[in-house]
C-alpha cells in the first residue's frame, strides 16, 4: 500500500467526489485508503492480520466514504444467517433484562444479530423452531424457557440442529443439551439458613409454577435445609405461586387465614416478594417487624424497594455471556470437536442481606 497516500488522505480528510452522494463500494474504500480490495476485506474480517497503521488507514477510509458492509451478501456467501434466536418465557419480567444484555454483549462481539421471541405470545412449537434453522433465518438458539417438550427436543435431534441449541437459566429434565444455570438448590438453602440464624423457626415458602424446573430446584433446597436444621413443618406453609407479583398477593390471603402463621417467608422470586410485602402492608402487617421476607434473583428493584429486599443474587449477566459462549462454540465448525460439553455449567449464587429480614424478638 502507499503509506504516503494514506497519510495524505488522513491529513486532508476529504472524501473523493461523489462518494457521499451515493452508496460507497468496497472499491471506493480501497481507492481512498490506497490499498487493495482484499486488504479492505481482511480489515473487516481478520483485522489482527494487518499492521496497526494499515488498519487505521482502512477504517479511516470506511468512515470517510460511509461504506457499510452488505451483510446479506456476506451471509449468502458463507451460508450463514448471521442471527441467533433467544426464546424468553416472559419479556415483561425484568429478571431477563441482564441475561439478554449478557447474550447481546457476547453475541455482538462475533457480529451476530439477536432475535428475541416471547414464548408467552407465540406458539413456539418444535416445528416452527426447526423451520427457523431450515429456512436459514438463524444459526443458533439460546432457550431461556424450560417448558420445551420432549417432542420438540426430538425434532431438534431428527433435523440435526441440536448442536446449535443451548439452554440458559432454565433447562429440560433428561435433556443432554448444553445449559448454563445458577445453583438454585444452594440459593434456597442459603435463604432458609439465614432466616434460621435470625431466630426464625416457622418459615413458609411461596413457590414458582408447579411444572417449572426452577420451582423444583428451589423447593428441594428449601426442604433439604429445613430437614437439616430440624425445623417444624406444616403443609400449609408451602404456598403455590408462579413467580409473579400477583402470587405474592394471593399468598398473603392464605397466610392471614392460617391458625399458626409463619414468622418468615422465603419467596421463590423477588417479584413474589414484592407482591407479598405490599399486600402485607395493606393489611397492617409490617416487614420485617411482624414478618421477615426473603426473595430470589436480586433484580434491580430489590435494592431500592422499601424495605430493601434481602434476596439470593444470581449473576444474570454471566448466565447470558456464558450461554452465548457455549452456543458460539457449538456453531463454529472449527470448534465442533469431540466431547462437546453436555454437563451443565453451574454458576454460584450469594445471599444479599438488606432490610426485609430481621432477627426474631419474640
Concise synopsis of the structure shown:
With 362 residues, this protein is α/β, with parallel strands linked by helices. Helix content is 43%, strand content 14%. The protein folds into 3 domains: 3-69, Orthogonal Bundle (434 Repressor (Amino-terminal Domain)); 81-182 and 317-345, Response regulator (Rossmann fold, 3-Layer(aba) Sandwich), CATH 3.40.50.2300; 184-314, Rossmann fold, CATH 3.40.50.2300.
Tell me the name of the CATH homologous superfamily of the largest domain. Answer: Response regulator
| Broad shape | elongated
CATH architecture of the largest domain: 3-Layer(aba) Sandwich
Radius of gyration: 27 Å
The CATH topology label of the largest domain is Rossmann fold
Round the mean pLDDT to the nearest integer and report it: 86
SS elements, strand count: 12
Q: Percent helix among the residues? A: 40-55%
Which class do the helix and strand fractions yield? alpha/beta
Write down the CATH class of the largest domain.
Answer: Alpha Beta
User: β content, as a range?
Assistant: 5-15%
* Biggest sheet strand line-up: 2-1-3-4-5-11
Number of domains: 3
Written as H for each helix and E for each strand, in order along the chain, the element string is HHHHHEHEHEHEEHEHEHEHEHEHEE
The rounded distance between the terminal residues' Cα atoms is 82 Å
Q: How many H/I helical runs?
A: 14
Poorly predicted runs are 10-21, 72-79
Keywords: DNA-binding, Transcription, Transcription regulation
Domain HTH lacI-type: 24-78
Organism: Roseibium marinum
InterPro entries: HTH_LacI, LacI/GalR-like_sensor, Lambda_DNA-bd_dom_sf, Peripla_BP_I
Amino acid at each position: 500500500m502507499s503509506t504516503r497516500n494514506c497519510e495524505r488522505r488522513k491529513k486532508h480528510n476529504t472524501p473523493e467526489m461523489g462518494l457521499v452522494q451515493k452508496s460507497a463500494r468496497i472499491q471506493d474504500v480501497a481507492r481512498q485508503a490506497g490499498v487493495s480490495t482484499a486488504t479492505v476485506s481482511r480489515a473487516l474480517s481478520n483485522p489482527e492480520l494487518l499492521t496497526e497503521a494499515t488498519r487505521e488507514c482502512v477504517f479511516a477510509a470506511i468512515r470517510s466514504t460511509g461504506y457499510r458492509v452488505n451483510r446479506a451478501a456476506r451471509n449468502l456467501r458463507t451460508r450463514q444467517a448471521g442471527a441467533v434466536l433467544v426464546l424468553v418465557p416472559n419479556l415483561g419480567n425484568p429478571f431477563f433484562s441482564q441475561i439478554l444484555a449478557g447474550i447481546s454483549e457476547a453475541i455482538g462481539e462475533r457480529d451476530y444479530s439477536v432475535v428475541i421471541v416471547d414464548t408467552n405470545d407465540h406458539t413456539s412449537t418444535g416445528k416452527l423452531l426447526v423451520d427457523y434453522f431450515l429456512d436459514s433465518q438463524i444459526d443458533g438458539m439460546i432457550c431461556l424457557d424450560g417448558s420445551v417438550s420432549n417432542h420438540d427436543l426430538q425434532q431438534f435431534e431428527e433435523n440435526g440442529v441440536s448442536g446449535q441449541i443451548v439452554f440458559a437459566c432454565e433447562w429440560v429434565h433428561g435433556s443432554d443439551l448444553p445449559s448454563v444455570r445458577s445453583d438454585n438448590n444452594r440459593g434456597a438453602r442459603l435463604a432458609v439458613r439465614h432466616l434460621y440464624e435470625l431466630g426464625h423457626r416457622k418459615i413458609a415458602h411461596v413457590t414458582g409454577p408447579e411444572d417449572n424446573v426452577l420451582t423444583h430446584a428451589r423447593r428441594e433446597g428449601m426442604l433439604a435445609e429445613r430437614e437439616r436444621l430440624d425445623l417444624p413443618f406444616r403443609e400449609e406453609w408451602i404456598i403455590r405461586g408462579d413467580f409473579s407479583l400477583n402470587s405474592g398477593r394471593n399468598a398473603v390471603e392464605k397466610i392471614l387465614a392460617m391458625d399458626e402463621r409463619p414468622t418468615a417467608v422465603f419467596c421463590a422470586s423477588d417479584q413474589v416478594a414484592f407482591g407479598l410485602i405490599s399486600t402485607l402492608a395493606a393489611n397492617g402487617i409490617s416487614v420485617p417487624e411482624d414478618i421477615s421476607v426473603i426473595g430470589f434473583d436480586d433484580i434491580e428493584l430489590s435494592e431500592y424497594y422499601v424495605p430493601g429486599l434481602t434476596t439470593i443474587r444470581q449473576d444474570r449477566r454471566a448466565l447470558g455471556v456464558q450461554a452465548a459462549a457455549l452456543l458460539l462454540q457449538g456453531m463454529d465448525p472449527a470448534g465442533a470437536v469431540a466431547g462437546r460439553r453436555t454437563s451443565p455449567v453451574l454458576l454460584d449464587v450469594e445471599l444479599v442481606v438488606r432490610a426485609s429480614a430481621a432477627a426474631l424478638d419474640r
